[in-house]
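batch_manifest entry 22 of 60
target: FMN-binding domain-containing protein
source organism: Cetobacterium somerae ATCC BAA-474
requested by: lab member K.T.
priority: normal
notes from requester: please return tokens only, no post-processing; we will run our own comparison against the previous entry in this batch. if the run fails, retry once and flag.
--- input ---
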Amino acid sequence: MKKFKSLILPIFLFMTSLCFSNTLFKPGTYVGSAQGYGGPIKVEVKTTDSKILSLNILEQKETKGISDFALKSIPKEIIENQTLGVDTVAGATFTSNAIIEATKNALKNSGVNFEKISKKIVKDTKTEIPLLDKEADVIIIGAGGAGLAAGVSAYENGAKSVIILEKMPIIGGNTIRSGGAMNAVNPEKQKKQGIEDSIEKHTTQTWEGGNKVANKKLVETMTSNALDGVKWLENYGLKWKKEIGSVIGSVWPRTNQAEDILGTGYINTLEKAFSKYGGKIFLETKAIKLIEKDGKVIGVVATDKNGKDIEFIGKKDYCYRWICC
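--- output ---
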């Protein structure tokens, strides 16, 4: 009997150690914060003894439109992969790192061994894009303001299918980070504010502002069509502020300002229009070279997020294949 009792205690201790070896956290709800791009990011993390149940962002002052993807994807990836070793979102690195750091700060009181929840994610390299999704009448490189506008315009001019390749995990390019101002002579609004203006004045001021280096005819083409651009965007749903203003560095009040912050209004409007036409955008797909045949560009080679090369080809039965950068 004594021998039996002496065996029970070691076995019990061994089994107990096995149970606790699977324990990562002290179950509970934890709050932490870290400095983001626009200010502190505060998160709430809920855990069981073995996993992170939820990760919610309680407070943040990040730039709308630029940080949106990171604010959604980083918590989701941490939960799905049960690790803080997730990739940051290009273009929103400050926000991404702040979410990860805030989560880490929150979990400091959970008793976790951070080495066990910091393993890097191994990416799936088996994803295959169907052949039909790699062919289009028009292939555009870059999902910024110019690329999205080109995509919408292509559909307006008869294209049946359009693909946009974007190297970043989010659309917007430089446009989404811009001040959202668009200079155009707008007589209807300017007259109400007592502002006298003309295409000639806009052309001359723009040309002189560039030290007269630009081709003045091209400057005139831009200024003459600027109001059409304002109305074109408005037709697709962009909301403009009621009054004409001016931005830093401008010499005349002719700024048409979108209601949405920065350039988010332009991008959201164009993306919505492009999607409505049926356009496809491939994110984290970086164009690396053009494909040429018989002296003509017929497609693009791009690298996806897993480092795999993909060929996107202009349809042979179509009368044009556009590659817009």
